[in-house]
Specification:
One of its GO terms (biological process) is rejection of self pollen. By secondary structure, the protein is an alpha+beta fold. The chain contains one helix and four strands, in the order αββββ. It has a two-stranded antiparallel sheet with strand order 1-4. Strands 2-3 form a two-stranded antiparallel ribbon.
Length: about 70
């Protein structure tokens, strides 16, 4: 059993799949009425997706796995 857990975690990391929950899909669209550019910066404790500038009706998409809390 002790070998199975690390193996499953390793396999989920290699295939870019979430271990327990489904991936969360995020889409941000600039719908500002005055046609201004929208500047955004997406960052978490683990990843920094950088700064992005969205022109009118431009979109930015990303996905992530929610945190996995495994208690032994």
């Amino acid at each position: 059993m002790l070998l199975v857990v690390p193996l499953v975690v390793c396999m989920s990391m290699m295939c870019n799949a979430c271990f327990i929950a489904d991936k969360v899909q995020v889409q941000i669209t600039n719908q500002l009425e005055n046609a201004e550019d929208l500047t955004l910066h997406c960052k978490s404790a683990d990843d920094d997706l950088g700064q992005h500038v969205l022109h009118k009706v431009g979109s930015y998409k990303f996905s992530f796995c929610p945190p996995n809390f495994i208690f032994v």
